[in-house]
# Entry
Amino acid sequence: MDTGPDLKEQYRRLEEIIRALRNQEVDTVIGTKGIFMLRVKETEDALREQYRWLESLLAERTKLVEHLQAQQELLERQGEHLEQLVEERTAELRRLSHRLIDVQEKERNLIGIELHDQIGQYLTYTTLLIDQMARKHESQELTNARMAVQEAIGKIRNLSALLSPRLLRSDGLLIALDSFVEEYTRNTRIEVDFIHEEALHDLPNDVALACYRIIQESFTNVARHAKPGKVELRLSSRKHSVHLEVADDGAGFDPQRTEHSTGLTGMRERALALNGVLTIETGLGRGTRVSADIPFTIEETQ
# Structure
């Protein structure tokens, strides 16, 4: 049986099939590579487009950030300018308030001196004339007239002391307040506890005057509105400042309804004019506490 040619033919055909398969594999690989390269190119193009878009977005963001920074710097400069203006205006208002208070004090002093020296003298002279007439023609009318004039002299002296506290200028705050409290108790029948430190003798004149006026106004309000059984006045020194408190156990008041009271506003202005702070604690039926802290420098006390 001759099988040789058949085997050779089969072998030849097998080789052709193998070659064909190999050629087909190569073509397939080449085709796949082409598709792959095409997709790589498309991906690169897409990435470049994304990169250009990101660059554009980053540039816009950078411009926005620079714009916001510029606006913030402008606002900060405007804020600093406004703060400076507010500080300047506040300082100017304090200077004007201080000058106004100074002018008011000078007017009060002039009026107080006029009352004490001029009108007081006229009333004293009138008393002498009444006494001369009484020695010649003694009558109840002349006695009543003399009593009325004496009462007027007393009121003139009290008013003069309120307008122009001479003891404050000559003997200092504590002695002036001692006299004021004594007179206040005698006129109003309101008990007053005056608690203080002796070191307060050396306060600067403007600080002592501000304290005196704040206390004076507080006591006037107490007598007019509070109807208390007792008032406590405290005066103490702190580091480079004086602290005062006027507290009563009276009726108190609603702070909202008396916020723009002339007396309360005047007390606040006196404290603010010297860079001080005044606070009021009160409520209906709770009494009232007026506190003030007024600074002063060491040089002023020397």
Q: What stands out?
A: The domain at 169-302 is CATH 3.30.565.10 (Heat Shock Protein 90). The radius of gyration is 49 Å. Residues 57 and 174 are 76 Å apart (CA to CA). The first strand starts at residue 191 and ends at 196.
